[in-house]
Amino acid sequence: MTFSADLVDALHQQNSADGLLELIEITHPDLAEPLRIANERGGGVVNALGVQWAKFAVDLQLPDELEEGTPEVRIVFSNVSGVIGQTLQALTTTPNVTIYGVKFSDLNSAEQTLSSFIIENITIDLTTVSVKLAREPFSREPIPSQRFLPQWFQLLGRSRSE
User: Fold this and answer.
1) Is residue 111 part of a domain?
2) Contact assessment for residue 76 and residue 22, using Cβ atoms and an 8 Å cutoff
3) Does the residue 161 lie in any domain?
């Protein structure tokens, strides 16, 4: 990920007042408006990017460089009020997720945008909602056996003498 030089400097300073605020937007056609969550404890709302974001404690795990396997994005929302879990449980199809990074000193400009995620897996319990995000729904791709049937290739597997 690429950040501005100002943000990188602020993140490396020991007592900087500036930092990165993660904003998570969940959209779906069945939602009257997107579910907007700011990774900040304490309840209430944050005004950023021209809209209001509900404050929830969030554990956001962005992908790292893996030698094997597909990088994963995981988000664990503190769901003490139950709002996030109830909203996601009511949806019948997969919602889209966009993650924004904004500087505390400039909440109306996205420093970083990670878009086009879908929720691949979700676990909801009494106090948390855990989601695993994916860029592409690989699990929905047809496998070759669905495209090629053995009866289409009747000579396959027979010896020349038959």
Assistant:
1) yes
2) no
3) no
* Count of structural domains, the chain: 1
Residues 6+ apart with CB under 8 A from 82: none
Domain span holding position 99 = 5-152
What DSSP letter does each residue of 86-132 carry, written as one string? Answer: HHHHT-SSPPEEEEEEEETTEEEEEEEEEEEEEEEEEEE-SSEEEEE
What is the C-alpha to C-alpha distance for residues 105 and 21, in angstroms, rounded to an integer?
10
126-161: per-residue pLDDT in tens? 889 999 988 765 545 555 545 555 555 555 555 555
Give the pair of three-digit tokens for residue 98.
């966009």
Distance separating alpha carbons of residues 133 and 51, to the nearest angstrom: 24
Does some domain include residue 162? no
pLDDT in tens, 60-101: 887 766 656 666 789 999 877 888 888 998 998 989 999 998
Length of the chain: 162
Residue 157 maps to a domain:
no
